[in-house]
Predict the 3D structure of the following.
Amino acid sequence: MSKSLDELLVERAKRGDAEAFEQLASQYYRKVYNIAYRVIGNPEDASDVAQEAFERAYLSLPEFRGDSSFQTWLLRITNNACLDELRRRKRRKVTSLDEPMSVEDGEMDRQLAIADEADGPEQALERLEVQRVVQESINALDEEYRVVVVMRDIQGYSYNEIAETLGINLGTVKSRLNRARHALKEMFGRLELLAPRVVYSGRRGKTHEL
Amino acid sequence: MNCDGVRDLLSAYLDGELSPGELLRVEQHLRRCHACADEVDSLRQTVALVASLEEVELPVGFHAQLHDRLVALGPPAAAVRRVGSATSRQRQARRWAVPAAAAAAVFAVGLTAYSTLSSPGTGMVATSHFTNNGPVAETTQQGNTAQNPTTSDPAKSGEIAQNTLPATGTGTTDIKPSGTTEQQGTKQNDTPFDPTVGQTAKNGGAGTATKDTTTTPPPAPAVIQYGALIAVAKDDAKIATLKSEYALSQPVNGGLMFTVPADSFETIVARVKELFPNAQVTSQNVDLGNDIAAADAKLTVLRAELDQLQKQTKLDLEEQARLKAEIKQAEDDRQLFVDQAKTATVTLTFQTAAQ
């Protein structure tokens, strides 16, 4: 009866082994940060929220019973931390789509540096511009919609995994995702990011745009 | 199937999450309907755009920063007991908003000083202290430098409190009575679980996991919500007796948590020990001082902002209204903590056999 590494680390962490907790948690640093980054929409707050999530996990570890995997549990905490931050923010101001995204120049440079080197600088810049606009569109969504879109289309979780992580039922996942994607589609359309569909007429081999 | 019905299913269609029946109907519809076929295509492109967002690197220093934060919290089990987990504390603050009102009503009967103090945003903090002579209710004000807390005239206190806002550590009294704060609520000193419980986490900068607007945190006056964790042998009859005497209880992980007005704390602890002779009592006090100080600081900032706005020659009424709503929210948040401090919790954990 072998246990996964996570399970062993969880046991040790629950007994008060802080190093075990860090070993366990650090496997998820990047993932949690990325989720926070995409749901919240900017690097500084994302870092705070991600760390907050890990702190909460650390403090709630005694309550973790292993009903779900550690990852699922951790992501649920992450989700709650993100929602808390977004709701806190909501009480401060109303963000509009026209607001410039708070990506600092330093961040842009960093992303550029990481960008595919086969691209020339112009293509890299263009791609980053598109990503900026896409992220801003996500920022315009209400928090519940942001989370499902990020988890599905960026993180690649299945509907069931999303339902389990967020503690909502499958139908809710489906409808939220549907609405989120439709909303994004509208925004992308207005921003002219979508190409028209090309239809090939089967009989005469002609192409016409619709 | 018509277009409206299909539209709702398109997202799931893209992900292959339709039932066979739904899939059939959608495919049939899409063969005939250009508009919906366009829609699917647009959705597909939308998903692709979102998926194109690249994974970002952890910010420099993330690892180290988080490590420091965790270290500051101390070993996990002790951190929970000493500081009270951030989430459960926040949960408490929200959950007890209603019962606290009821508890506060009970309060007001026995302690007339309290009844006039609950005007929000006056910066007043009301706490009960338990000295070795028994419960003593004292009223103190943040920012008041008087060394001898007395039940002062409520009307006047209100004024004083107003003027001394903000109260982030400026000339505030340490309202902790003699002896270690943490042990105050329980007459017992044995803490079989964790020796670090005795250490006061009064200033736990690490304790407040909330992001707040305070910059330098000078020690905030301790505002203790008394709590006790009592390990008892499971006995349904005795538990039923206790429940009949103390109405407000709710099941928690492996136990039962009672919420009582702060001045009933000693009584209920004594009663539990009476019913369960071998009970092991651990202090579970929560220091809300930092939370309240943070809330006060936030209110100060917001009010200053409003003040600025109101002085502008070009009035922005919409922004003012928004700010006022935010101030109200912040006042409510603060009140939650204050109300929370008026209650005490006693959590029974049920031990199985020998421990």
About this structure: Confidence is low (pLDDT under 50) at residues 95-116, 204-210 of chain A. The first helix of chain A runs from residue 5 to 14. The first strand of chain A starts at residue 198 and ends at 200. Chain A is about 65% helix and 5% strand.
